[in-house]
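Quick note —
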Amino acid sequence: MDPTLTNSLSHAAALTLAAVLHRPAPAYLPTAARRIMTACLQIVIICLALLCLAGPENARAAEYDESDQYLDSESDSVVVVRRGESLLGIAARLLPATDFYTTGELAEAIRVASSFDSDRLMPGQTLHVPLASGSRGRIATDGTEVRGLYVTARTAGSARILALADSLIAVGGNTIIFDIKDRQGDLSYPSRVPLALATQVDSLAPIRRPRALVRELHKRRLHVVARLTCFYDERLAAVRPELRPRSLAGDGAPWGKGWLDPSLPQVQDYLLEIVTEVSRFGVDEIQLDYVRFPTEGDLADALFDFDTWHLAKHEVITEFVARTRGRLIDTNVLLAADLFGVAAWGREADLRRLGQKLTDLLPLLDVASPMLYPSHFFGPFLGIERPSDYPYYLVQAGLRRLKPLAEVHGVDVRPWLQAFPYGVTGFDEQYVTEQILAARDAGAQGWMLWHPANRFDVSLEAMRTLHNGRVVESLRRQPELLGKQTVEVEPDM
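Predicted structure written out below.
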C-alpha cells in the first residue's frame, strides 16, 4: 500500500478511536493488550475507510475504467471452473478482459476453444478463454461510397447490433451510425463529464463498453459514426431550466419544452466535453445533429442569450461548430453535421430561423449530411403539391444545390434518406431505391438510411437489389415526365 495512504489512514484511525472511545485504552490493561486492541481497531478502521473509498461514486468510475480495459493478446487464457459456476457466468465475469462485445458471443467462443458440447460444467474443469475475437480493421472511406444505417442506443447496447451489422454487410453496406446522445438527452454510455454526472443523464447507458462496441464493428470493417444530438435535449431542459431559452411574454420563464439555448456557453461547453470524451472511443466520425436553433413553436416569444443586434443565429452555430472542430484537431476523427433539408436551397427565411449558413459551416466540416426526407417537405414545394411522391426528384434537387458548395471546400456530401413510411403513399422497396439512385446520380459520396425504430427490412431488400445489380432504370420518377411543372428556387446566399 502507498505509505502516504497508510499514514493518512492511520491518522484517521487514531482520530476515530479518540472520537469513539473518548479516552485512551483502559490503564488496567497490560501494555501488550492495549497495543493489540489499538492495532485491531486500526485494522477495522482501515477496512471501513477502504470500503468508503470504493463507495457508489467511485465504484461507478471503477466500472467505467474496467469496461474500457482490453487485452490485445492473441493467446488464450486458462480458467479452472469453481463450484457453482456456469458458462454464462464465467463469460460475464471475463467479458471486460476480452474484445468480445456480448456475453453470449464469448460463451460460444469458450465452448469452441475448450472443445465441449455440454452446458454443464464440473468443478476443476479447465476452460480456454479466447482473449481476442479475430482480426481488426476498418473501412478506408477515401473514395468509397458510404452505405450506412442509423442505430439507436438501445439497439447498439444489445446483441441486435451485431446481427444488424452482418445483415448490412451482406447487402453491400459498410457504415453504422449510432447514438451517443439522443433527442431525449440520454447519454448512451457511462460518462465522466461533470454535468452528465450531476444530472445522471447517463443513468440508462445501454452501451456499457463503448470502446468494445467500436472494436467489434471495426472487426467487420465498418465505418463507425457516433451521432450527437446537440441543442435539443429534453432531460437537461427539464432538470436545468436555466439552460433553456427565455419567454418574452412569460417574464423570463423558460421557453419551449426540449430546447436548450445554443448561445449559452454552459450548453456549448457540455457538448464539447462529450465530443472530447467520445473521440477517445475509437470512432471514425462524430456527427452533429440538431446543430441549429428551434424552428417550431412561438419563435417570436423566444429570447436567447446573445445580442441579436450584433450577432446572428448563424454566427452562433458557426462558432460552436468551429469550437467542435478545434476539439478534434489532434485526432483522426472526422466531423460531420446534419443539415436541415431546406438549407440546401439557401433561402434567407430558412437561414434566419435555423442558423445554418452553409457557406460558413462547410469549411469546418469533413462531411455534410442534408436530411432530404421527402415526407418532410410540404407542398407546394418547387411547384409540387405532394413532394413525398417524387423521392428521386427531391433528393437529387437538394444534392444538386449542395454539391457545388461542398466541392469548393473538399467536403463530402452524404445525405440522410427516408427509410420509414411516414407521409408516404405506398412506401416500399422502390421508394428507398429511388432515393439511393438519386444520391448516386447527383454525385454524393454515399448515403445513410434513417428509421427511428431500426426497422430496415424494406431498406435492406432495396440494398440487396442494388448490390446484386438488378436496378430498374424506370425507378427515377420526375415530375416533368408525369406532366407536372416544377419551379426552380434560386438561393439567397
